[in-house]
Design brief:
523 residues, alpha+beta, 16 strands, 47% helix, Fructose-1,6-Bisphosphatase, Chain A, domain 1, 5-stranded mixed β-sheet
C-alpha cells in the first residue's frame, strides 16, 4: 500500500508541475490551429513572418512576450509542490544560508527582472514616450509594474503551493525593475551626449563651408521694389512644380525652416499628450456649448486642449502667435501675423467627439513668414501621428508616405460638409453624386484634417469641401503636399491662411478630373 501511495503521489506531482506550462502551450497551439484551419497553414506562417519583418510594434511585442514566458517558466511553471509556502516569508537577505551554503537567488531575481521593464517601455515608446518623461515618473512606473508583476507571481506560488512566498523576492524583483527603467531612461541620453562629445572632441561638429552654388535656381532672389511689384525676399523652389501645386507650398529647401529636430519631437510629444486628454475625456451635456450657425458646437475639452497647446507651443517656440478655432486666452485668431504662427484645431471633428464616433484628431500647423512650414495631425483613437516638415517628407508614425497619382475611378473620393457652412451645397452634392458613380466609393468622415491626411496615406484619392477655416486644413496641407499630393481651392487658386476658402486636395489626376466635373455641373 505504501508503494502504491508513493507511485500515485509522484504521478500526480509530475502532472501538477507540468500543468501550467501544458495549459498555456495547449491554448496557444489550439489558437494557431483554429486560425490555420480557416485560412491554411501557409498563409498563417507567411502572415506571421511578414508581420514580424514589417511591423516594429509586433516585433517588440513578440520579444516582450518571449521574455515574460521565460520568466514564468523560471518562477511558476514546472515548479515543485511546496508543503507550506509560508515557512520562510522573510527569506534570506544575505549571500549565505543559515547552514553556511552560498545563496545567490536574490541577485538572480534582480537580474531576471532587469530586462523586463526596458522591453515593456520599448514596446510602448511610440505611444507613451517614456524616454522623454521625467526620471521620477519613469522610476515610479517601473516600480509599480515590477512590484505588481512580482506580487502576482508570489501570490500564485502561495495559493497554488508551487513555491514559497518571500519578501526578499518582492524586494529584489522590484529593485531589478526599477534599475531596468533607469537604464532605459538613461541609455538614450547617455548615447546622445557621448556622441556629441566625440563629435566635439574630434572637430566633427562643425559644418563644412561650401562656396555659393553656381546654379541660380538654388539661390535666394531679391526682387527690386518697383512701381509694378514690391515683394520681399523669397526663395526659388529647388524642386520642379507639380501641376496643380501652388506657390505657397513649393518652397522645399529645408534650410529655411526654423525648426530643430528637438523642437519637432517636443511638438509631437505635446500633441500626443493633448490627444490623450481627448481620448480620456468624460463628456457631459453641461460641457457642450452651441456656437454661431446650426449644428455648430464647442465643448469644454476643445477649449481646455487649445489652452494646453497654446501654453506648451509657446514654451517650445517663444514669441509665436496662434490662430485657433476656439476663443481662448492667447488666441489672436485671423489677426495673427507673427513670424511664427500656429494654426490649431484642438478637436477636429467635434460632432464625432460628442457622439463617441471615435474619429477626431488634434491638428496643429506651423506657418513661418506667412507660409505653412510644418503640420502635425494626431488621431488618439488609433494612435496615428501624421507629420510633415516642408522639404523633409510626410510620415505616419515614422513611416514615410508617398502617394501614387491615381484617377478617381481607382480609389475613394472623400468630401466634407457642415450645416453651418452651407455655401454651394447644391453644387457639392451634385458633384458627390457624380463622384459616387465614377469612384470606387465615397466617404465623409466628419474630420477634414483626417480625411486630408488619408490622401497622404493613400486611402483617399481626393477630398472636397466648399468652405473650411485655415485651422482646419493648415496642418494637413503640408502633409498632403510632402507626400506628393496637391491642394488648392476649387478654382485652382492657392489656399488662404487668413480667411476661409474652398478645398480640393488629392492626386494630381484626381483633382484635375474633379475640377472638370464641377465645371460641367456649374454650367
Amino acid at each position: 500500500m505504501e508503494y502504491l501511495i508513493q507511485i500515485i503521489g509522484n504521478v500526480l506531482a509530475a502532472l501538477y508541475q507540468a500543468g501550467g506550462a501544458s495549459l498555456v502551450i495547449a491554448v496557444l497551439f489550439m489558437s494557431a490551429y483554429m486560425r490555420a484551419r480557416k485560412t491554411g497553414v501557409g498563409p498563417v506562417v507567411q502572415g506571421w513572418i511578414q508581420e514580424f519583418r514589417t511591423n516594429t510594434l509586433f516585433r517588440r511585442q513578440f520579444f516582450l512576450v518571449f521574455y515574460i514566458c521565460m520568466m514564468l517558466f523560471r518562477t511558476l511553471f514546472c515548479r515543485s509542490i511546496w508543503g507550506n509556502p509560508l515557512d520562510n516569508v522573510l527569506g534570506v537577505w544575505g549571500f549565505h544560508k543559515e547552514d553556511g551554503s552560498i545563496y545567490t537567488e536574490n541577485i538572480e531575481n534582480l537580474i531576471l527582472f532587469l530586462p523586463m521593464i526596458p522591453l515593456l517601455f520599448w514596446m510602448l515608446e511610440e505611444k507613451e514616450h517614456n524616454k522623454k518623461r521625467p526620471l521620477q515618473t519613469v522610476l515610479a512606473r517601473s516600480v509599480y509594474v515590477s512590484f505588481g508583476f512580482s506580487l502576482l507571481i508570489e501570490l500564485c506560488q502561495l495559493f497554488l503551493k508551487i513555491g514559497t512566498f518571500q519578501l526578499t523576492d518582492l524586494f529584489f524583483n522590484t529593485l531589478g525593475g526599477a534599475l531596468g527603467g533607469l537604464l532605459y531612461w538613461g541609455f538614450d541620453r547617455s548615447r546622445k551626449r557621448a556622441a556629441a562629445y566625440i563629435r566635439k572632441l574630434g572637430g566633427w561638429d562643425t559644418e563644412e563651408w561650401n562656396p555659393p552654388a553656381e546654379d541660380s535656381s538654388r539661390l535666394p532672389i531679391i526682387k527690386a521694389e518697383t512701381a509694378d511689384t514690391e515683394k520681399e525676399k523669397t526663395f526659388v523652389p529647388v524642386q520642379e512644380k507639380t501641376e496643380g501645386q501652388q506657390d505657397h507650398s513649393t518652397e522645399t529647401d529645408a534650410s529655411w525652416i526654423p525648426l530643430t529636430p528637438e523642437q519637432e519631437e517636443e511638438i509631437c510629444t505635446l500633441i500626443r499628450e493633448a490627444g490623450q486628454k481627448m481620448l480620456h475625456a468624460k463628456l457631459s451635456d453641461d460641457a457642450v456649448h452651441e456656437k454661431d450657425g446650426p449644428a455648430n458646437f464647442c465643448t469644454d475639452f476643445d477649449m481646455e486642449i487649445q489652452k494646453f497647446l497654446i501654453q506648451g507651443l509657446g514654451r517650445i517656440l517663444p514669441g509665436a502667435e496662434f490662430f485657433g478655432e476656439e476663443e481662448t486666452e492667447g488666441n489672436a485668431g485671423s489677426k495673427a501675423s507673427g513670424e511664427y504662427t500656429f494654426y490649431i484645431d484642438p478637436i477636429d471633428g467635434t460632432t464625432n467627439f460628442m457622439f463617441r464616433y471615435n474619429h477626431s484628431c488634434v491638428s496643429v500647423g506651423l506657418a513661418y513668414q506667412g507660409k505653412i512650414a510644418a503640420g502635425f495631425v494626431y488621431n488618439p483613437y488609433v494612435d496615428e501621428m501624421y507629420s510633415a516638415v516642408r522639404g523633409k517628407g510626410s510620415f505616419l508614425n515614422g513611416k514615410r508616405l508617398k502617394i501614387q497619382d491615381k484617377s478617381i475611378d481607382e480609389g475613394i473620393a472623400a468630401f466634407g460638409c457642415a450645416r453651418y457652412n452651407d455655401e454651394n451645397v447644391e453644387v457639392l452634392f451634385d458633384t458627390v453624386k457624380e463622384l459616387f458613380r465614377r469612384s470606387l466609393s465615397i466617404r465623409s468622415g466628419g474630420s477634414a484634417a483626417l480625411d486630408l491626411c488619408r490622401i497622404a496615406s493613400g486611402s483617399n484619392v481626393i477630398y472636397l469641401e466648399m468652405k473650411l477655416q485655415p485651422y482646419d486644413y493648415a496642418a494637413a496641407s503640408v502633409i498632403v503636399e510632402e507626400a506628393g499630393g496637391v491642394i488648392a481651392q476649387i478654382d485652382a487658386s492657392p489656399i488662404t491662411l487668413h480667411k476661409p476658402c474652398s478645398i480640393l486636395a488629392g492626386t494630381r489626376r484626381g483633382c484635375e478630373e474633379t475640377r472638370k466635373l464641377i465645371s460641367f455641373i456649374e454650367r
